[in-house]
Amino acid sequence: MPPIQLENAHLRATIDPNQGTSLRSFQVHRNNTWLPLMPEIDEPGCDLAAASFLMVPYSNRIADGSFTFAGECHQLQNGEQHAIHGDVRTRAWRVEAQQPHRLVCSFSSAEYNDINWPWPFAVRAEYELAEHTLQQRLTLSNHADRSMPAGCGWHPFFNRTLTQDGEPAHLHFQVQSAYPDGYDNRIPSGPAQALALHQDFTGESQLAPDNFLDTCFYGYDGQGHIAWPKSGVRLRFACSNACAHLILYNPAQKPYFAVEPVTNANDGVNLYARGDQTSGIAVLEPGQSLDAEFSLCVEYG
Q1: How far apart are CA 84 and CA 161, in angstroms?
Q2: Band of the pLDDT at 292, cuts 50, 70, 90?
Q3: CB distance 140 to 121 below 8 Å
Q4: Are 165 and 143 in contact (CB under 8 A)?
Q5: Among 136, 143, 140, 57, which residue's Cα sits nearest to residue 104?
Q6: 283 Cβ partners below 8 Å, 6+ apart?
Q7: 168-227 confidence digits (pLDDT tens)
Q8: Percentage of the chain with pLDDT > 90?
Q9: 141, 121 Cβ separation under 8 angstroms
Q10: Can you tell me the mean pLDDT for 70-96?
């Protein structure tokens, strides 16, 4: 199946059900042209596999791919590199509903014999364009006959510049704390702690290209924005209460950065096992679901 394009008068999004229902592009119609807010995956030189992908049934890394839940030890594949970003972003999904402005896809782990998760699960993902807003919804359901730890999130990349080379990008969001990364492996080396100056975007601040960040924040209030003042574009993002964590990835020497709303902390299942109340891990009983929403709204001026 070829990628599916959603479009209205203001926004255009291209989604690939064959590759995790990932976004391949996200554009806004501005000054009689389509302006890419996210990297264009099909452009020569782009080194990303997706402009935005889904993380299910957990977000970010699990230390050594190993954890204990309900008294049982589990070892995931790829543990030597820390199991990362769940197990749905490269797999094919089913299209359940498709209209010009809306797409609904589903995924069932039962259709695969190599799922890297000990519990069977299902996911429903929805993308919908409404005026200047891209609304995204995720539902993760436990299809096992026992309780399951669960988490999910989005991993969108955004272009550092829009219309002018070297233009500054500004960022703003409210969080309470950040997990330390004392081992430089994105696994929390201690409890969440006060923000360092270079991590603090509680007031709108420029996201400097040389300010390397790959930080997981706790206590996210579900709101925020990215602004490109010289281009006259502001992108407001908003999440449902399930997303109490936010990850900011700002790689050096790259034309993009990522702002990732997620439900669980990095290594959340191990934080949960240690009794850390900030883990964000949801425990789903058989048949229960975890729901999350994430919207992107374009403003001008």
Answers
A1: 28
A2: very high
A3: yes
A4: no
A5: 136
A6: 147, 148, 149, 150
A7: 999 999 999 999 999 999 999 999 999 999 999 999 999 999 999 999 999 999 999 999
A8: 98
A9: yes
A10: 94
pLDDT in tens, 231-279: 999 999 999 999 999 999 999 989 999 999 999 999 999 999 999 999 9
What element of type H or E holds 142? strand 133-142
Is residue 44 very low, low, confident or very high in pLDDT (cuts 50, 70, 90)?
A: very high
Q: According to the model, what pLDDT value does residue 296 have? A: 98
Residue 81: predicted pLDDT: 83
Query: In angstroms, rounded to a whole number, what is the distance separating the alpha carbons of residues 13 and 132?
Result: 12
Report the C-alpha gap between 123 and 130 in whole angstroms. Answer: 23
What domains can be seen in the chain, in order of their start residue?
Answer: 4-300 (2.70.98.10)
Q: How far apart are CA 101 and CA 281, in angstroms?
A: 32
For residue 195, give both structure tokens: 């923000």
Which of these, 172, 196, 108, 93, lies nearest to 144 by C-alpha position?
108
Separation CA 283–CA 252 (nearest Å):
36
pTM greater than the 0.90 cutoff: yes
Alpha carbons 252 and 233: distance in angstroms, whole number: 23
The distance from CA 275 to its chain's CA centroid, rounded to whole angstroms, is 25
CA distance 126 to 140: 12
Half-sphere exposure of 278 (CA within 13 A, CB side): 20
> What share of residues in the chain are helix, strand, coil (percent, to 5)?
10, 45, 45
φ, ψ at 107 (rounded to 5°): -140, 135
Long-range contacts of 9-12 (CB under 8 A, 24+ apart): 10/129, 10/131, 10/132, 10/298, 11/129, 11/132, 11/133, 11/134, 11/298
